[in-house]
Amino acid sequence: MMKIIDLSVPLENYSFDPWPPRIFYLKHRSGAKYVGKRVGRGVDEFPGKIGFAWEEVKLTTHTGTHLVAPWHFGPTTEGRPAKTIDEIPLDWCYGDGVVLDLTRKKAGQLITVSDLKNALSKIDYEIKAKDIVLIRTDADKHFNKPDYGSVHPGVSREAIKWIIEQGVKIIGMDGYGLDRKLAPEEDLKDLFQAHFVGREKEYCQIEQLANLDKIPKPYGFKVAVFPIKIEGASAGWVRAVALVP
């Protein structure tokens, strides 16, 4: 028996996502008019006088729960052309998950290598190659609050490098991003530590995860984060899930 846990935030009009979507809903009555006009039929000719519902959505590839490709960080990584989202190997996107509890870290603080090692020690686990590392901060609980884009901590440059050096290709967090909120007085290299590592080391980020607290154990489960295939894009939306036996 497999339990499936949704790790994604919804796409909603007027959300507190810093890059919210705009969703236009065409409902059944309007759908009859829309389709009827194109096929030369009146609304009364449709069964029940209703047509089909669909939606038009305007959003960025970095809206909602999404997988960030190396191309987002820069044009090259490790001296090679950086992969776009349609070039990400699918075997990176499904694997063993491990949740690291960093809920004690507050907004604007940095998660260090020592923090990671302490979290791993508490669950008696060693990261292995191709693990999908999920950093829990509980920032997703602010998804419907104005501070959603700023309430998360960041991951330090050294901490990101250390995880990648264990053979990890995908690192995710349950906040708006893996870097802290922008502060105008700071140097950009200090603000975007996790992003700039992506120019040196090849890896992907999962941003805006949710419900990491609902995974009943810190490891011994699978994670699936397959991105939408968008040609040449820097990211793709995912319906991230944990599969817990």
List strands and helices in order, with pairings.
Elements: E1 3-6, E2 22-26, H1 28-39, E3 54-58, E4 66-68, E5 76-77, E6 80-81, E7 94-101, E8 110-111, H2 113-123, E9 132-136, E10 154-155, H3 157-165, E11 170-173, H4 188-191, H5 193-197, E12 204-207, E13 219-224, E14 235-237, E15 241-244
Parallel strand pairs: 7-9, 8-10, 9-11, 11-12
Antiparallel strand pairs: 1-15, 2-3, 4-12, 4-14, 5-6, 7-13, 13-15
Give an overview of the whole structure.
The chain is an alpha/beta fold and 245 residues long. It folds into two domains: 22-58, no CATH class; 66-244, Glucose Oxidase, domain 1, CATH 3.50.30.50. It is 17% helix and 24% strand. The chain contains five helices and 15 strands. It has helices at 28-39, 113-123, 157-165, 188-191, 193-197; strands at residues 3-6, 22-26, 54-58, 66-68, 76-77, 80-81, 94-101, 110-111, 132-136, 154-155, 170-173, 204-207, 219-224, 235-237, 241-244. It has a nine-stranded mixed sheet, with helices on one face. The chain has a two-stranded antiparallel ribbon with strand order 2-3. Strand 5 and strand 6 (80-81) form a beta hairpin. The protein is elongated and about 70 Å long. The model has no long low-confidence stretch (mean pLDDT 95).
